[in-house]
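Lab meeting, item 3. Inverse folding demo.
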Protein backbone atom coordinates (compact mmCIF):
# COMPACT_ATOMS: atom_id res chain seq x y z
CA UNK A 1 0.00 0.00 0.00
CA UNK A 2 2.93 2.32 0.66
CA UNK A 3 3.95 1.86 -2.98
CA UNK A 4 0.56 3.13 -4.14
CA UNK A 5 0.80 6.16 -1.83
CA UNK A 6 4.14 6.88 -3.46
CA UNK A 7 2.43 6.58 -6.86
CA UNK A 8 -0.18 9.20 -5.80
CA UNK A 9 2.61 11.54 -4.77
CA UNK A 10 4.30 11.12 -8.14
CA UNK A 11 0.94 11.79 -9.81
CA UNK A 12 0.70 15.11 -8.02
CA UNK A 13 4.24 16.06 -9.03
CA UNK A 14 3.75 15.10 -12.67
CA UNK A 15 0.44 16.93 -12.82
CA UNK A 16 2.09 20.11 -11.53
CA UNK A 17 4.95 19.94 -14.04
CA UNK A 18 2.50 18.95 -16.79
CA UNK A 19 4.20 15.62 -17.61
CA UNK A 20 0.88 14.35 -18.90
CA UNK A 21 2.00 10.97 -20.23
CA UNK A 22 3.57 9.90 -16.94
CA UNK A 23 0.57 11.27 -15.07
CA UNK A 24 -1.74 9.12 -17.20
CA UNK A 25 0.15 5.94 -16.41
CA UNK A 26 0.20 6.75 -12.70
CA UNK A 27 -3.50 7.57 -12.76
CA UNK A 28 -4.26 4.08 -14.12
CA UNK A 29 -2.27 2.57 -11.26
CA UNK A 30 -4.30 4.60 -8.76
CA UNK A 31 -7.56 3.39 -10.31
CA UNK A 32 -6.36 -0.19 -9.88
CA UNK A 33 -5.49 0.60 -6.25
CA UNK A 34 -8.98 1.88 -5.61
CA UNK A 35 -10.40 -1.37 -6.95
CA UNK A 36 -8.19 -3.29 -4.52
CA UNK A 37 -9.36 -1.12 -1.59
CA UNK A 38 -12.98 -1.65 -2.59
CA UNK A 39 -12.46 -5.41 -2.44
CA UNK A 40 -10.63 -5.17 0.87
CA UNK A 41 -13.50 -3.12 2.33
CA UNK A 42 -15.73 -6.19 2.07
CA UNK A 43 -13.66 -8.01 4.68
CA UNK A 44 -14.51 -6.83 8.23
CA UNK A 45 -11.13 -7.90 9.63
CA UNK A 46 -9.28 -5.93 6.97
CA UNK A 47 -11.59 -2.94 7.34
CA UNK A 48 -10.78 -2.67 11.05
CA UNK A 49 -7.01 -2.94 10.60
CA UNK A 50 -4.71 0.04 11.19
CA UNK A 51 -2.93 -0.34 7.83
CA UNK A 52 -6.20 -0.13 5.89
CA UNK A 53 -7.25 3.17 7.56
CA UNK A 54 -3.76 4.60 7.11
CA UNK A 55 -3.80 3.83 3.39
CA UNK A 56 -7.27 5.32 2.91
CA UNK A 57 -6.32 8.51 4.73
CA UNK A 58 -3.11 8.85 2.71
CA UNK A 59 -4.97 8.37 -0.57
CA UNK A 60 -7.59 10.93 0.45
CA UNK A 61 -4.86 13.41 1.39
CA UNK A 62 -3.12 12.96 -1.95
CA UNK A 63 -6.35 13.41 -3.92
CA UNK A 64 -7.09 16.56 -1.98
CA UNK A 65 -3.71 17.85 -3.09
CA UNK A 66 -4.61 17.12 -6.71
CA UNK A 67 -8.03 18.75 -6.38
CA UNK A 68 -6.53 21.84 -4.72
CA UNK A 69 -4.60 22.74 -7.86
CA UNK A 70 -6.06 25.98 -9.10
CA UNK A 71 -5.41 25.42 -12.81
CA UNK A 72 -8.03 23.04 -14.30
CA UNK A 73 -5.40 21.76 -16.74
CA UNK A 74 -3.28 20.77 -13.75
CA UNK A 75 -6.21 18.92 -12.22
CA UNK A 76 -7.00 17.05 -15.45
CA UNK A 77 -3.64 16.46 -17.15
CA UNK A 78 -5.01 15.23 -20.51
CA UNK A 79 -7.39 18.14 -21.11
CA UNK A 80 -4.69 20.38 -22.50
CA UNK A 81 -3.37 17.74 -24.90
CA UNK A 82 -6.25 18.39 -27.27
CA UNK A 83 -4.78 21.73 -28.16
CA UNK A 84 -1.24 20.41 -28.63
CA UNK A 85 -0.05 19.57 -32.12
CA UNK A 86 0.48 15.85 -32.43
CA UNK A 87 4.07 16.32 -33.64
CA UNK A 88 4.97 17.53 -30.17
CA UNK A 89 3.69 14.44 -28.40
CA UNK A 90 6.37 11.99 -27.36
CA UNK A 91 5.44 8.99 -29.46
CA UNK A 92 8.21 6.88 -28.04
CA UNK A 93 6.66 7.25 -24.58
CA UNK A 94 3.30 6.04 -25.85
CA UNK A 95 4.98 3.10 -27.54
CA UNK A 96 6.79 2.31 -24.31
CA UNK A 97 3.51 2.45 -22.38
CA UNK A 98 1.84 0.04 -24.79
CA UNK A 99 4.85 -2.26 -24.67
CA UNK A 100 4.70 -2.31 -20.87
CA UNK A 101 0.95 -2.95 -20.98
CA UNK A 102 1.50 -5.89 -23.33
CA UNK A 103 4.29 -7.34 -21.18
CA UNK A 104 2.37 -6.88 -17.93
CA UNK A 105 -0.91 -8.16 -19.38
CA UNK A 106 -2.66 -4.89 -18.59
CA UNK A 107 -5.41 -4.69 -21.21
CA UNK A 108 -7.32 -1.94 -19.37
CA UNK A 109 -4.43 0.52 -19.49
CA UNK A 110 -3.84 -0.34 -23.13
CA UNK A 111 -7.48 0.39 -23.92
CA UNK A 112 -7.12 3.72 -22.11
CA UNK A 113 -4.23 4.62 -24.41
CA UNK A 114 -6.43 3.62 -27.36
CA UNK A 115 -9.18 5.92 -26.06
CA UNK A 116 -6.89 8.92 -25.88
CA UNK A 117 -5.37 8.17 -29.28
CA UNK A 118 -8.87 8.34 -30.76
CA UNK A 119 -9.80 11.39 -28.67
CA UNK A 120 -6.71 13.34 -29.71
CA UNK A 121 -7.07 12.24 -33.35
CA UNK A 122 -3.42 11.22 -33.49
CA UNK A 123 -2.62 9.88 -36.96
CA UNK A 124 1.15 9.82 -36.75
CA UNK A 125 3.58 7.04 -35.79
CA UNK A 126 2.05 3.86 -37.20
CA UNK A 127 4.22 1.88 -34.78
CA UNK A 128 1.92 2.97 -31.93
CA UNK A 129 -1.12 1.59 -33.72
CA UNK A 130 0.71 -1.66 -34.53
CA UNK A 131 1.63 -2.11 -30.87
CA UNK A 132 -1.97 -1.47 -29.90
CA UNK A 133 -3.07 -4.10 -32.42
CA UNK A 134 -0.57 -6.57 -30.94
CA UNK A 135 -1.93 -5.83 -27.46
CA UNK A 136 -5.48 -6.80 -28.42
CA UNK A 137 -4.28 -9.94 -30.18
CA UNK A 138 -2.21 -11.02 -27.19
CA UNK A 139 -5.40 -11.18 -25.18
CA UNK A 140 -7.08 -13.17 -27.94
CA UNK A 141 -9.54 -10.39 -28.73
CA UNK A 142 -9.60 -10.96 -32.49
CA UNK A 143 -12.93 -9.10 -32.88
CA UNK A 144 -11.63 -5.82 -31.41
CA UNK A 145 -8.36 -6.32 -33.28
CA UNK A 146 -10.24 -6.42 -36.59
CA UNK A 147 -12.26 -3.35 -35.59
CA UNK A 148 -9.05 -1.50 -34.78
CA UNK A 149 -7.50 -2.67 -38.05
CA UNK A 150 -10.46 -1.31 -40.04
CA UNK A 151 -10.30 2.11 -38.32
CA UNK A 152 -6.53 2.60 -38.29
CA UNK A 153 -5.53 5.87 -39.98
CA UNK A 154 -2.83 4.07 -41.95
CA UNK A 155 -1.48 0.54 -42.36
CA UNK A 156 1.86 -0.92 -43.36
CA UNK A 157 3.16 -4.42 -44.07
CA UNK A 158 3.62 -5.07 -40.32
CA UNK A 159 -0.04 -4.23 -39.74
CA UNK A 160 -1.24 -6.63 -42.43
CA UNK A 161 1.16 -9.39 -41.36
CA UNK A 162 -0.04 -9.08 -37.76
CA UNK A 163 -3.75 -9.32 -38.58
CA UNK A 164 -3.28 -12.04 -41.23
CA UNK A 165 -1.18 -14.22 -38.91
CA UNK A 166 -3.71 -13.78 -36.11
CA UNK A 167 -6.60 -14.64 -38.45
CA UNK A 168 -4.77 -17.81 -39.53
CA UNK A 169 -4.31 -18.85 -35.91
CA UNK A 170 -8.01 -18.20 -35.29
CA UNK A 171 -8.95 -20.48 -38.23
CA UNK A 172 -10.43 -17.75 -40.36
CA UNK A 173 -11.80 -18.80 -43.73
CA UNK A 174 -9.17 -18.73 -46.48
CA UNK A 175 -11.34 -16.42 -48.58
CA UNK A 176 -11.45 -13.88 -45.75
CA UNK A 177 -7.67 -13.98 -45.75
CA UNK A 178 -7.80 -13.47 -49.50
CA UNK A 179 -9.90 -10.36 -48.85
CA UNK A 180 -7.20 -9.03 -46.51
CA UNK A 181 -4.57 -9.75 -49.14
CA UNK A 182 -6.64 -7.95 -51.81
CA UNK A 183 -7.01 -4.97 -49.47
CA UNK A 184 -3.28 -4.99 -48.96
CA UNK A 185 -2.67 -4.85 -52.70
CA UNK A 186 -5.30 -2.14 -53.13
CA UNK A 187 -3.57 0.07 -50.55
CA UNK A 188 -0.29 -0.50 -52.41
CA UNK A 189 1.34 -2.22 -49.44
CA UNK A 190 3.98 -4.62 -50.72
CA UNK A 191 3.74 -8.11 -49.16
CA UNK A 192 6.87 -9.81 -47.88
CA UNK A 193 7.93 -13.36 -47.05
CA UNK A 194 6.01 -13.33 -43.74
CA UNK A 195 2.79 -12.41 -45.55
CA UNK A 196 3.00 -15.24 -48.04
CA UNK A 197 4.14 -17.81 -45.46
CA UNK A 198 1.02 -17.13 -43.39
CA UNK A 199 -1.35 -17.11 -46.38
CA UNK A 200 0.05 -20.29 -47.92
CA UNK A 201 -0.09 -22.10 -44.59
CA UNK A 202 -3.80 -21.26 -44.25
CA UNK A 203 -4.83 -23.01 -47.50
CA UNK A 204 -5.89 -26.32 -45.99
CA UNK A 205 -9.61 -26.53 -46.80
CA UNK A 206 -10.82 -28.41 -49.86
CA UNK A 207 -12.06 -25.22 -51.57
CA UNK A 208 -9.00 -23.22 -50.57
CA UNK A 209 -6.50 -25.66 -52.05
CA UNK A 210 -6.51 -23.79 -55.37
CA UNK A 211 -5.64 -20.60 -53.53
CA UNK A 212 -2.24 -22.05 -52.70
CA UNK A 213 -1.43 -22.03 -56.41
CA UNK A 214 -2.66 -18.41 -56.64
CA UNK A 215 -0.39 -17.34 -53.78
CA UNK A 216 2.43 -19.39 -55.30
CA UNK A 217 2.05 -17.39 -58.52
CA UNK A 218 2.20 -14.13 -56.53
CA UNK A 219 5.40 -15.23 -54.80
CA UNK A 220 7.00 -15.85 -58.19
CA UNK A 221 5.82 -12.44 -59.39
CA UNK A 222 7.26 -10.77 -56.27
CA UNK A 223 10.51 -12.73 -56.48
CA UNK A 224 9.90 -14.45 -53.13
CA UNK A 225 9.45 -18.09 -54.20
CA UNK A 226 13.16 -18.67 -53.53
CA UNK A 227 12.84 -17.43 -49.94
CA UNK A 228 13.33 -20.17 -47.34
CA UNK A 229 10.19 -19.22 -45.36
CA UNK A 230 7.95 -19.05 -48.42
CA UNK A 231 9.46 -22.12 -50.08
CA UNK A 232 9.10 -24.22 -46.94
CA UNK A 233 5.43 -23.21 -46.63
CA UNK A 234 4.85 -24.26 -50.24
CA UNK A 235 6.63 -27.59 -49.73
CA UNK A 236 4.59 -28.33 -46.62
CA UNK A 237 1.32 -27.31 -48.28
CA UNK A 238 1.80 -29.37 -51.43
CA UNK A 239 2.96 -32.37 -49.39
CA UNK A 240 -0.22 -32.21 -47.31
CA UNK A 241 -2.19 -32.19 -50.58
CA UNK A 242 -0.35 -35.41 -51.52
CA UNK A 243 1.27 -33.54 -54.43
CA UNK A 244 4.85 -34.59 -53.76
CA UNK A 245 6.15 -33.67 -57.21
CA UNK A 246 4.98 -30.07 -56.77
CA UNK A 247 6.49 -30.04 -53.29
CA UNK A 248 9.85 -31.18 -54.67
CA UNK A 249 9.72 -28.50 -57.37
CA UNK A 250 8.98 -25.82 -54.77
CA UNK A 251 11.88 -27.16 -52.69
CA UNK A 252 14.18 -26.84 -55.71
CA UNK A 253 13.35 -23.13 -56.01
CA UNK A 254 14.74 -22.32 -52.55
CA UNK A 255 18.15 -20.65 -52.88
CA UNK A 256 19.45 -21.04 -49.31
CA UNK A 257 18.30 -24.34 -47.87
CA UNK A 258 18.29 -24.63 -44.10
CA UNK A 259 17.52 -27.49 -41.71
CA UNK A 260 13.83 -26.53 -41.50
CA UNK A 261 13.45 -26.80 -45.29
CA UNK A 262 15.05 -30.25 -45.34
CA UNK A 263 12.93 -31.44 -42.41
CA UNK A 264 9.70 -30.34 -44.07
CA UNK A 265 10.57 -32.11 -47.34
CA UNK A 266 11.65 -35.35 -45.63
CA UNK A 267 8.50 -35.37 -43.49
CA UNK A 268 6.43 -34.70 -46.63
CA UNK A 269 8.01 -37.68 -48.40
CA UNK A 270 7.17 -39.92 -45.44
CA UNK A 271 3.60 -38.56 -45.34
CA UNK A 272 3.23 -39.38 -49.04
CA UNK A 273 4.52 -42.94 -48.50
CA UNK A 274 7.62 -42.25 -50.60
CA UNK A 275 10.03 -43.73 -48.09
CA UNK A 276 12.84 -44.36 -50.58
CA UNK A 277 12.79 -40.72 -51.64
CA UNK A 278 12.81 -39.63 -47.99
CA UNK A 279 15.97 -41.67 -47.41
CA UNK A 280 17.57 -40.18 -50.55
CA UNK A 281 16.80 -36.66 -49.35
CA UNK A 282 18.24 -37.50 -45.94
CA UNK A 283 21.49 -38.73 -47.50
CA UNK A 284 21.61 -35.68 -49.78
CA UNK A 285 21.19 -33.45 -46.74
CA UNK A 286 24.12 -35.15 -45.03
CA UNK A 287 26.28 -34.67 -48.14
CA UNK A 288 25.48 -30.96 -47.97
CA UNK A 289 26.98 -30.84 -44.45
CA UNK A 290 23.63 -29.96 -42.88
CA UNK A 291 23.54 -31.29 -39.33
CA UNK A 292 20.26 -33.08 -38.62
CA UNK A 293 18.28 -32.74 -35.41
CA UNK A 294 15.72 -34.76 -33.47
CA UNK A 295 12.88 -33.85 -35.83
CA UNK A 296 14.86 -35.17 -38.80
CA UNK A 297 15.51 -38.48 -37.07
CA UNK A 298 11.90 -38.78 -35.95
CA UNK A 299 10.75 -38.44 -39.56
CA UNK A 300 13.34 -40.74 -41.11
CA UNK A 301 12.78 -43.47 -38.50
CA UNK A 302 9.18 -43.66 -39.74
CA UNK A 303 10.50 -45.12 -43.01
CA UNK A 304 11.31 -48.34 -41.13
CA UNK A 305 7.98 -50.14 -40.96
CA UNK A 306 8.58 -53.81 -41.86
CA UNK A 307 10.92 -56.58 -40.67
CA UNK A 308 13.34 -55.99 -43.54
CA UNK A 309 13.93 -52.43 -42.31
CA UNK A 310 15.15 -53.48 -38.87
CA UNK A 311 18.85 -53.10 -39.67
CA UNK A 312 18.33 -49.61 -41.05
CA UNK A 313 16.25 -48.68 -38.01
CA UNK A 314 18.93 -49.90 -35.62
CA UNK A 315 21.50 -47.76 -37.46
CA UNK A 316 19.30 -44.70 -36.97
CA UNK A 317 18.92 -45.64 -33.31
CA UNK A 318 22.71 -45.69 -33.07
CA UNK A 319 22.91 -42.23 -34.68
CA UNK A 320 20.49 -40.89 -32.07
CA UNK A 321 22.63 -42.29 -29.24
CA UNK A 322 25.89 -41.04 -30.79
CA UNK A 323 24.57 -37.47 -31.21
CA UNK A 324 22.96 -37.43 -27.74
CA UNK A 325 19.45 -37.21 -29.19
CA UNK A 326 18.14 -40.49 -27.80
CA UNK A 327 16.85 -38.75 -24.67
CA UNK A 328 14.24 -36.79 -26.65
CA UNK A 329 10.72 -38.12 -26.16
CA UNK A 330 9.64 -37.83 -29.85
CA UNK A 331 12.61 -39.99 -30.88
CA UNK A 332 11.74 -42.54 -28.20
CA UNK A 333 8.17 -42.63 -29.52
CA UNK A 334 9.27 -43.21 -33.11
CA UNK A 335 11.69 -45.93 -32.00
CA UNK A 336 8.89 -47.69 -30.10
CA UNK A 337 6.78 -47.72 -33.26
CA UNK A 338 9.70 -48.85 -35.41
CA UNK A 339 10.66 -51.81 -33.20
CA UNK A 340 6.99 -52.78 -32.78
CA UNK A 341 6.63 -53.11 -36.56
CA UNK A 342 10.06 -54.51 -37.41
CA UNK A 343 10.62 -56.97 -34.54
CA UNK A 344 8.57 -59.82 -33.18
CA UNK A 345 7.49 -59.21 -29.64
CA UNK A 346 7.65 -56.08 -27.52
CA UNK A 347 10.91 -56.55 -25.63
CA UNK A 348 12.76 -53.66 -27.30
CA UNK A 349 9.81 -51.21 -27.14
CA UNK A 350 9.38 -51.97 -23.43
CA UNK A 351 13.04 -51.14 -22.76
CA UNK A 352 12.80 -47.89 -24.70
CA UNK A 353 9.58 -46.92 -22.93
CA UNK A 354 11.24 -47.55 -19.58
CA UNK A 355 13.99 -45.05 -20.46
CA UNK A 356 11.52 -42.19 -21.10
CA UNK A 357 11.62 -39.81 -18.15
CA UNK A 358 8.17 -38.34 -18.84
CA UNK A 359 6.18 -40.44 -21.32
CA UNK A 360 3.41 -38.50 -23.04
CA UNK A 361 0.15 -39.67 -24.59
CA UNK A 362 1.98 -40.47 -27.84
CA UNK A 363 4.37 -42.77 -25.94
CA UNK A 364 1.51 -44.68 -24.32
CA UNK A 365 -0.43 -44.90 -27.60
CA UNK A 366 2.64 -46.21 -29.44
CA UNK A 367 3.01 -48.98 -26.86
CA UNK A 368 -0.68 -49.92 -26.99
CA UNK A 369 -0.60 -50.02 -30.81
CA UNK A 370 2.55 -52.15 -30.68
CA UNK A 371 0.88 -54.70 -28.41
CA UNK A 372 -2.14 -54.84 -30.74
CA UNK A 373 0.07 -55.32 -33.82
CA UNK A 374 1.89 -58.14 -32.09
CA UNK A 375 -1.41 -59.79 -31.12
CA UNK A 376 -0.90 -59.19 -27.40
CA UNK A 377 -4.34 -57.83 -26.59
CA UNK A 378 -4.24 -58.64 -22.87
CA UNK A 379 -0.96 -56.75 -22.47
CA UNK A 380 -2.42 -53.79 -24.40
CA UNK A 381 -5.42 -53.75 -22.04
CA UNK A 382 -3.11 -53.80 -19.00
CA UNK A 383 -1.00 -50.99 -20.42
CA UNK A 384 -4.10 -48.91 -21.06
CA UNK A 385 -5.20 -49.28 -17.43
CA UNK A 386 -1.71 -48.32 -16.26
CA UNK A 387 -1.87 -45.21 -18.47
CA UNK A 388 -5.12 -44.12 -16.84
CA UNK A 389 -3.72 -44.74 -13.35
CA UNK A 390 -0.75 -42.51 -14.18
CA UNK A 391 -3.11 -39.61 -14.88
CA UNK A 392 -2.67 -39.47 -18.66
CA UNK A 393 -5.94 -38.76 -20.46
CA UNK A 394 -6.82 -40.40 -23.76
CA UNK A 395 -6.97 -38.65 -27.10
CA UNK A 396 -8.54 -39.74 -30.38
CA UNK A 397 -5.48 -41.77 -31.40
CA UNK A 398 -5.24 -43.69 -28.12
CA UNK A 399 -8.97 -44.45 -28.16
CA UNK A 400 -8.76 -45.69 -31.75
CA UNK A 401 -5.82 -47.89 -30.72
CA UNK A 402 -7.38 -49.45 -27.63
CA UNK A 403 -10.85 -50.23 -29.05
CA UNK A 404 -9.63 -53.10 -31.33
CA UNK A 405 -8.34 -54.83 -28.20
CA UNK A 406 -11.86 -55.46 -26.92
CA UNK A 407 -12.98 -56.58 -30.37
CA UNK A 408 -10.14 -59.11 -30.49
CA UNK A 409 -10.94 -60.33 -26.96
CA UNK A 410 -14.72 -60.20 -27.60
CA UNK A 411 -15.16 -58.25 -24.35
CA UNK A 412 -18.31 -56.32 -25.14
CA UNK A 413 -18.84 -54.90 -21.64
CA UNK A 414 -15.38 -53.37 -21.48
CA UNK A 415 -15.77 -52.09 -25.02
CA UNK A 416 -18.98 -50.34 -23.95
CA UNK A 417 -17.10 -48.75 -21.05
CA UNK A 418 -14.64 -47.25 -23.50
CA UNK A 419 -17.59 -46.08 -25.61
CA UNK A 420 -18.94 -44.31 -22.51
CA UNK A 421 -15.60 -42.54 -22.06
CA UNK A 422 -15.75 -41.51 -25.71
CA UNK A 423 -19.21 -39.99 -25.23
CA UNK A 424 -18.06 -38.06 -22.15
CA UNK A 425 -15.04 -36.70 -24.00
CA UNK A 426 -14.75 -34.47 -27.06
CA UNK A 427 -13.89 -37.38 -29.33
CA UNK A 428 -17.41 -38.66 -29.99
CA UNK A 429 -17.42 -36.91 -33.36
CA UNK A 430 -14.01 -38.16 -34.45
CA UNK A 431 -14.15 -40.34 -37.57
CA UNK A 432 -11.35 -42.73 -36.59
CA UNK A 433 -12.85 -43.32 -33.13
CA UNK A 434 -16.31 -44.04 -34.56
CA UNK A 435 -14.82 -46.38 -37.16
CA UNK A 436 -13.03 -48.26 -34.39
CA UNK A 437 -16.31 -48.47 -32.43
CA UNK A 438 -18.11 -49.98 -35.43
CA UNK A 439 -15.39 -52.59 -35.83
CA UNK A 440 -15.33 -53.38 -32.10
CA UNK A 441 -19.10 -53.89 -31.85
CA UNK A 442 -19.11 -56.03 -34.99
CA UNK A 443 -16.37 -58.34 -33.70
CA UNK A 444 -18.19 -58.62 -30.38
CA UNK A 445 -21.32 -59.78 -32.24
CA UNK A 446 -23.38 -56.66 -31.52
CA UNK A 447 -24.32 -55.66 -35.07
CA UNK A 448 -27.18 -53.42 -33.85
CA UNK A 449 -24.77 -51.27 -31.82
CA UNK A 450 -22.38 -51.09 -34.78
CA UNK A 451 -25.22 -49.92 -37.03
CA UNK A 452 -26.34 -47.38 -34.39
CA UNK A 453 -22.87 -45.85 -34.22
CA UNK A 454 -22.76 -45.69 -38.02
CA UNK A 455 -26.14 -43.97 -38.27
CA UNK A 456 -25.31 -41.38 -35.58
CA UNK A 457 -22.11 -40.29 -37.31
CA UNK A 458 -22.41 -36.78 -38.76
CA UNK A 459 -20.36 -37.77 -41.79
CA UNK A 460 -18.77 -40.91 -43.16
CA UNK A 461 -15.59 -41.64 -45.02
CA UNK A 462 -14.54 -44.64 -47.10
CA UNK A 463 -13.25 -46.44 -43.99
CA UNK A 464 -16.58 -45.96 -42.18
CA UNK A 465 -18.60 -47.47 -45.02
CA UNK A 466 -16.10 -50.26 -45.65
CA UNK A 467 -16.06 -51.21 -41.96
CA UNK A 468 -19.85 -51.33 -41.88
CA UNK A 469 -19.95 -53.41 -45.10
CA UNK A 470 -17.43 -55.86 -43.63
CA UNK A 471 -19.53 -56.05 -40.45
CA UNK A 472 -22.62 -56.98 -42.43
CA UNK A 473 -20.58 -59.48 -44.44
CA UNK A 474 -19.34 -61.22 -41.29
CA UNK A 475 -22.96 -61.64 -40.17
CA UNK A 476 -24.19 -62.86 -43.57
CA UNK A 477 -26.28 -59.77 -44.32
CA UNK A 478 -25.48 -59.21 -47.98
CA UNK A 479 -28.44 -56.98 -48.85
CA UNK A 480 -27.65 -54.52 -46.04
CA UNK A 481 -24.02 -54.41 -47.17
CA UNK A 482 -25.08 -53.52 -50.73
CA UNK A 483 -27.35 -50.79 -49.34
CA UNK A 484 -24.34 -49.22 -47.61
CA UNK A 485 -22.44 -49.35 -50.91
CA UNK A 486 -25.32 -47.53 -52.61
CA UNK A 487 -25.50 -44.89 -49.85
CA UNK A 488 -21.75 -44.48 -50.06
CA UNK A 489 -21.86 -43.65 -53.75
CA UNK A 490 -24.81 -41.26 -53.24
CA UNK A 491 -22.71 -39.37 -50.64
CA UNK A 492 -20.00 -38.86 -53.24
CA UNK A 493 -17.57 -41.31 -51.68
CA UNK A 494 -15.49 -43.42 -54.06
CA UNK A 495 -15.20 -47.09 -53.01
CA UNK A 496 -11.78 -48.69 -53.17
CA UNK A 497 -10.58 -52.25 -53.57
CA UNK A 498 -11.12 -53.07 -49.89
CA UNK A 499 -14.71 -51.83 -50.10
CA UNK A 500 -15.48 -54.08 -53.05
CA UNK A 501 -13.77 -57.01 -51.34
CA UNK A 502 -16.10 -56.51 -48.38
CA UNK A 503 -19.12 -56.42 -50.71
CA UNK A 504 -18.02 -59.62 -52.46
CA UNK A 505 -17.48 -61.29 -49.10
CA UNK A 506 -20.95 -60.17 -47.96
CA UNK A 507 -22.56 -61.48 -51.16
CA UNK A 508 -20.71 -64.77 -50.80
CA UNK A 509 -21.88 -65.36 -47.23
CA UNK A 510 -25.36 -64.01 -47.99
CA UNK A 511 -25.95 -66.21 -51.04
CA UNK A 512 -26.33 -63.22 -53.40
CA UNK A 513 -24.52 -64.62 -56.42
CA UNK A 514 -25.97 -62.43 -59.17
CA UNK A 515 -25.51 -59.29 -57.08
CA UNK A 516 -21.93 -60.34 -56.36
CA UNK A 517 -21.16 -60.78 -60.05
CA UNK A 518 -22.56 -57.27 -60.72
CA UNK A 519 -20.38 -55.86 -57.93
CA UNK A 520 -17.30 -57.44 -59.53
CA UNK A 521 -18.20 -55.98 -62.94
CA UNK A 522 -18.82 -52.54 -61.37
CA UNK A 523 -15.43 -52.69 -59.76
CA UNK A 524 -13.57 -53.58 -62.97
CA UNK A 525 -15.61 -51.80 -65.63
CA UNK A 526 -16.97 -48.69 -63.88
CA UNK A 527 -14.31 -47.87 -61.29
CA UNK A 528 -11.47 -49.36 -63.38
CA UNK A 529 -9.93 -51.12 -60.38
CA UNK A 530 -7.59 -54.03 -61.03
CA UNK A 531 -8.76 -57.10 -59.07
CA UNK A 532 -6.29 -58.75 -56.73
CA UNK A 533 -6.08 -62.45 -55.93
CA UNK A 534 -8.37 -61.89 -52.91
CA UNK A 535 -11.13 -60.58 -55.20
CA UNK A 536 -10.81 -63.52 -57.58
CA UNK A 537 -10.82 -65.99 -54.70
CA UNK A 538 -13.91 -64.34 -53.24
CA UNK A 539 -15.82 -64.66 -56.53
CA UNK A 540 -14.82 -68.33 -56.84
CA UNK A 541 -15.88 -68.92 -53.23
CA UNK A 542 -19.20 -67.17 -53.90
CA UNK A 543 -19.95 -69.32 -56.95
CA UNK A 544 -18.76 -72.47 -55.18
CA UNK A 545 -20.93 -71.89 -52.09
CA UNK A 546 -23.96 -71.61 -54.39
CA UNK A 547 -23.09 -74.98 -55.99
CA UNK A 548 -22.14 -73.42 -59.33
CA UNK A 549 -18.82 -75.22 -59.48
CA UNK A 550 -18.54 -75.36 -63.26
CA UNK A 551 -19.04 -71.59 -63.47
CA UNK A 552 -16.34 -71.15 -60.84
CA UNK A 553 -13.91 -73.24 -62.91
CA UNK A 554 -14.86 -71.31 -66.08
CA UNK A 555 -14.26 -68.03 -64.22
CA UNK A 556 -10.74 -69.18 -63.34
CA UNK A 557 -10.04 -70.00 -67.00
CA UNK A 558 -11.54 -66.75 -68.33
CA UNK A 559 -9.61 -64.55 -65.90
CA UNK A 560 -6.34 -66.31 -66.64
CA UNK A 561 -5.62 -66.97 -62.98
CA UNK A 562 -4.77 -70.67 -63.18
CA UNK A 563 -1.50 -70.00 -61.36
CA UNK A 564 -3.24 -68.41 -58.35
CA UNK A 565 -3.23 -70.88 -55.47
CA UNK A 566 -5.93 -68.97 -53.54
CA UNK A 567 -8.63 -69.53 -56.17
CA UNK A 568 -7.92 -73.27 -56.28
CA UNK A 569 -8.08 -73.45 -52.49
CA UNK A 570 -11.47 -71.68 -52.60
CA UNK A 571 -12.69 -74.11 -55.27
CA UNK A 572 -11.40 -77.11 -53.31
CA UNK A 573 -13.36 -75.97 -50.25
CA UNK A 574 -16.52 -75.67 -52.36
CA UNK A 575 -15.98 -79.14 -53.84
CA UNK A 576 -15.65 -80.60 -50.36
CA UNK A 577 -18.84 -78.81 -49.33
CA UNK A 578 -20.84 -80.26 -52.24
CA UNK A 579 -19.03 -83.62 -52.54
CA UNK A 580 -17.64 -82.99 -56.03
CA UNK A 581 -14.78 -85.54 -56.20
CA UNK A 582 -13.48 -85.07 -59.73
CA UNK A 583 -13.16 -81.29 -59.66
CA UNK A 584 -11.91 -81.51 -56.08
CA UNK A 585 -9.06 -83.80 -57.12
CA UNK A 586 -8.17 -81.41 -59.96
CA UNK A 587 -8.11 -78.47 -57.52
CA UNK A 588 -5.92 -80.38 -55.06
CA UNK A 589 -3.51 -81.30 -57.87
CA UNK A 590 -3.24 -77.64 -58.90
CA UNK A 591 -2.53 -76.61 -55.33
CA UNK A 592 0.28 -79.17 -54.99
CA UNK A 593 1.79 -78.04 -58.30
CA UNK A 594 1.76 -74.39 -57.26
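The presenter then showed the designed sequence:
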Amino acid sequence: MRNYIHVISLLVVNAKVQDHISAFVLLNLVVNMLRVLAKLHICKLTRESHGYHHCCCSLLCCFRTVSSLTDPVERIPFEKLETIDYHSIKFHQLRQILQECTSAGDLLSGMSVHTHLVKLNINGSIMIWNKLLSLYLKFGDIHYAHQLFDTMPQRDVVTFNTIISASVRDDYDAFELLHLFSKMKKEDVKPNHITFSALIGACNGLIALRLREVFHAHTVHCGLSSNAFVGSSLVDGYAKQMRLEDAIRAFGEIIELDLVSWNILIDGCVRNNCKEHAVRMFLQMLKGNVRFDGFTLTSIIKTCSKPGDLKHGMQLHGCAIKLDLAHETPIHNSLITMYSKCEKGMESPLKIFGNISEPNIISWTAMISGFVQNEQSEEAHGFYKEMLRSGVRENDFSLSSILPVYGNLAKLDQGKQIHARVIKSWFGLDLSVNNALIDMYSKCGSLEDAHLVFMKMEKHDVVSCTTMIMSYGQHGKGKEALEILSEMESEGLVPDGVTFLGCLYACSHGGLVEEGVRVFKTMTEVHKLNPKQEHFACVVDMLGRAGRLNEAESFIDEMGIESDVLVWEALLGACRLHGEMELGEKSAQKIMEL
